[in-house]
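queue> holo job accepted (heme C)
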Amino acid sequence: MRRDASVWVLGLAAVLLLTSCEKPKPALFDTSLPVLEVMVHQIDPGAWAFWGASGEVADAAGSKSLRPTTEEGWLAAENGAVQVAEGGNLMLLPGRVRDEEWIRLSKKLTQDGLAAKAAVEAKDSAKMYAVGAEMFQTCIACHTKYVPALQPGAEPVGAPLPDWPADVKLKQEQFLEGKK
Ligand code: HEC
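queue> job finished
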């Protein structure tokens, strides 16, 4: 019995010694930029570069397709899609990630961005429009839940979130209703 106990104590001492020798690991990521900065400078411009090449705009003169007409135009849309796809991953870095719903929506944003990239590569305008509407819903879902200024009864602070022009929004609603 005595011997067993001393072996155990020695073992414990060895474990403690090893643990105390472990140096703290340097952080792999520098997440000093707040989420707001990543939204405003990466995710938002990326989404708009993609949306700006999807669907059509209507004004008094009639409706005009936003489909790119140059290789630069297609590239800009694809760049935007990648910014959104990787933006979803950025929301999952330590210090930014919140709860299960946040994880779900961040992953969804990445899926939407990847689908957007694929649609641009295929130069499939209809698909780009459909994916764009889906992506928009992901932005709204996350903002409704996590941006305090957008919660019911909250006092608005700062600039409001950008919204689609009314005609585009109407078409999106019609599109989503048709899909259900
Ligand atoms: C995983 C959650 C999440 C997703 C998905 C998300 N956002 Fe955000 N977004 C936030 C949070 C949280 C804030 C507020 C950050 C703050 O104020 O600290 C924000 C703020 C913003 C703002 C700044 C609003 C202001 O205060 O003026 C913009 C612009 C924005 N998001 C655009 C987008 C776009 C576009 C998408 C979709 C392509 C998107 N976001 C998707 C969480 C998200």
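queue> The radius of gyration is 24 Å.
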